[in-house]
Amino acid sequence: MTIAAILITGNKTLLEQKKAHDNLPEIFKIIKKNYEILQSYDLEKTPMGRIVLMDKNELIEEGFNFRFCTSVHYKQGNIPWKFCFELGWQEYGNGVELVLWQDQAEIEAPLLPSRRDF
């Protein structure tokens, strides 16, 4: 490989990395909006681990973007619980389960309750 080929390959990688970083402010904005929408449901007033059921379309109408979260935990059967910090959700069909989990970074996902538990 020539020096020119190495430089071109290296520059392309740097440009791709810069482009990826250029999207970070937009991603942070989406995550912040998701968090604010989840906060509006006053999950802090429900007992920790208690699930709130709602229509998925209601969140979408408010501008919620289901593709962006801060972490994902898998429950039995590989059912993902997605979180924006301590506020989490699980999608099923046209419904969504919302949950507040203060120590979600420290939990094992199978400890999360299921809608079948209530």
Describe the structure.
The chain starts with a helix and ends in an 18-residue tail after the last strand. The chain is α+β, with helices and mostly antiparallel strands and 118 residues long. The longest helix has 20 residues, at 3-22. Helix content is 36%, strand content 24%. It has helices at 3-22, 24-39, 56-61, and strands at residues 51-55, 71-75, 79-84, 87-92, 95-100. A hairpin with a 2-residue loop joins strand 3 and strand 4 (87-92). Strands 1-5-4-3-2 form a five-stranded antiparallel sheet.
Produce a short descriptive summary.
With 118 residues, the protein is α+β, with helices and mostly antiparallel strands.
Helix content: 25-40%
Can you tell me the number of structural domains?
1
Q: Please report the number of helical segments.
A: 3
| SSE pattern | HHEHEEEE
Q: State the secondary-structure class.
A: alpha+beta
Number of strand segments: 5
Distance between the termini: 63 Å
* Largest sheet entry: 5 strands, antiparallel
Large-scale geometry: globular
Task: Tag the structure with descriptive keywords.
single chain, 118 residues, alpha+beta, five-stranded antiparallel sheet, 5 strands, globular, disordered N terminus, disordered C terminus
